[in-house]
Every structure is written in C-alpha cells, then in structure tokens.
Design goal:
Blueprint (H helix, E strand, L loop, with lengths): L3 E3 L5 E9 L4 H11 L7 E7 L2 E6 L3 E3 H4 L3 H9 L4 E11 L13 H19 L2 E7 L1 H4 L7 H9 L5 E8 L3 H12 L5 E5 L10 H8 L4 E7 L11 E9 L2 E6 L3 H16 L4 H24 L2
Helix pairs in contact: 1-3, 6-9, 7-8, 9-10
Length: 300
C-alpha cells in the first residue's frame, strides 16, 4: 500500500543549473511527471529563467513511494530530454513534503517505512479530533447561551477525543456549508453541528451539510404535515455522512438531546459503523426523549 502525502500549499519543485533550448514545456512536464508517477494533468512548468525551471504539482496529494529519493532519476530523465542541458551543479529543490525527492536514494526505503508507521499513528490521532459548530441566529446574536460545545467536550473528552469549538454561524445554508467546507480542510476526524435540523424555514443545517456531503444519511426524529403551523418541511432529522476521512454529524440544538446522542455516537464511531447506521443510532435516544416528553404532557 502506498503512502499518500498531502502537499498543502507547498506544491512547487524546481531544478537549478538547467538550461533549455527550444523545449516543449508540456512534454517536459510529462517527462518529469513520468518519473514521479504523476499524470500529464498533474504537473506543469510555471517558470523558466536564471538557469532554473519551476514545476507546479496540481494534484493535492502524491505518493511517497513514487517520489522519495528520486532526484537522480529526475535529473537523468531531464538530461536526456531534447533541448535540455544540465550543469555540474544541477539539483532538485522544494519546500514541504516534496523535499523527499532530494533524499538519498539509499534512504528511500527507510523514509517510506517510517512514514507508513507515522501515517498509521497520525490517522489514529486525527480520527480523535472533534470540532463543534453551533448554528442559529439566536445563538449568534447572543440571545441564547451556546452550551453545546461544553456538552460535547464533557462527554467525548472522557472517551479520549480532543474537542475544539468552531464558533457559531447564522441560519444561512451557504454560510453553514462554507464553514463546514473550511473545517473539512482543517484535518478533523469528526465535525459536529448543533441546531438547524428542524422542519421550519429557518432550519438549514441538513441542506447545508448535503452540499458538501451529497451522500449524507439522515434519520427522522419526527414527521409533520407541511404547511401546518411553521412547518415547511416534513421532517425533523439528524444526519451523518463522510467526506474523505472526516465524519460529519448534524445534531439538534437542545443540549439535552445532544447529550443523549453523544454516548451512542462515540460507541458507533469506535465500532466503525457506516454513516447510515450511525444516523439511526444517534436518533434513537433523541426519539426516546421526545416520546417521554409527550407522555409526560399526556399525563399532566
């Protein structure tokens, strides 16, 4: 199994002490890509001057197995390319993880083996990183105290999760989707939203989450007749989906419902259950709360 490296913003590599003469840059990029196991669409030349050629890697990830210790192979391929002349100080440089190209070839195997061990440990750590995003205009305006972050932290931190707060966002589908999209790039293993899962027109969280996770699974907490009262949607739901390595979970706003769902969520995650099953698992205790509340009113 190859180990993929996330390039983040460090996507450039450059060759020093190189001179070009009537060279097809597209074909030169393909030549470099062939050495580094990159497709023609994944790498291209961005600058040629001062005895330097700069390549930019478009692909967000590269295979460590394909690039570690490949400096000599890359220089050899470029030296054989028509119109390319390498000087005695020709070398490959990069910031960030692409720098492993310049590692000594004899160390490549050790680099790859150590990276795979690190990757396994890193993935285990990332899966325990949780961020909570609260939604709702009344919360954003400070009319209602946001107690959900502390609730999530109080439960999941005891299960060896590391919980952070992403703040509060208004009931706006585009804004919520944008915030979730940003958090997806921050490396969290679990993103929890609270609020905005109801049947009223102001409830936008499920729809926002579906923008970034089209395969989002939902579980119904209650059903309503559309047009009755303030209900413009037939359901109150919770949701769960996955984007890459990140699990997305949409919970209701009331803290007691969040607290009811969290133990089941932690258990389902530890068991590696799929999102559709997790959605039903976290819906069950919330439904039970609602049922008990209705019974209490019926006997009052």
């Amino acid at each position: 199994m190859s180990t993929d490296l996330d390039l983040l913003s460090k996507t450039e590599l450059w060759v020093e002490d190189i001179v070009l003469s009537d060279v097809d840059l597209t074909q030169l990029s393909a030549c470099a890509g062939g050495v580094l196991d990159l497709g023609a669409e994944d790498i291209f030349v961005t600058d040629v001057r001062d005895r330097r050629v700069v390549f930019d890697v478009v692909s967000p990830k590269v295979s460590l197995d394909a690039i570690a210790g490949k400096e000599d192979a890359l220089l050899s391929a470029l030296a054989s390319f028509p119109g390319v002349a390498l000087g005695p100080r020709a070398s490959v440089h990069s910031h960030g993880v692409l720098g492993v190209i310049g590692a000594p070839a004899e160390q490549a195997a050790d680099i790859i083996a150590n990276a795979k061990k690190l990757e396994a440990n890193l993935q285990a750590y990332v899966s325990r990183l949780v961020v909570v995003l609260s939604t709702g205009g009344e919360v954003a305006r400070g009319e209602i105290e946001d107690t959900n972050y502390e609730a999530v932290k109080s439960v999941l931190s005891k299960q060896s999760y590391f919980v952070e707060h992403a703040g509060v966002v208004e009931d706006d589908e585009a804004l919520i989707a944008a915030r979730i999209g940003h958090l997806l790039g921050e490396g969290y293993g679990l993103i929890i939203t609270t609020g905005g899962v109801g049947a009223e027109d102001k409830d936008k969280t499920i729809e926002a989450m579906q923008r970034v996770a089209p395969d989002l699974s939902t579980a119904v907490l209650a059903q309503y007749t559309v047009g009755h009262g303030r209900h413009v949607k037939p359901h109150v739901r919770v949701a769960c989906g996955r984007v890459g390595e990140t699990l997305l979970v949409a919970l209701p706003g009331p803290t007691r419902e969040v607290l009811a769902a969290l133990p089941l969520l932690a258990q389902a995650m530890d068991q590696g259950l799929p999102p559709a099953v997790i959605a039903e698992e976290i819906a069950a205790p919330i439904r039970a709360l609602w049922h008990a509340h209705k019974l209490g009113h019926a006997h009052a």
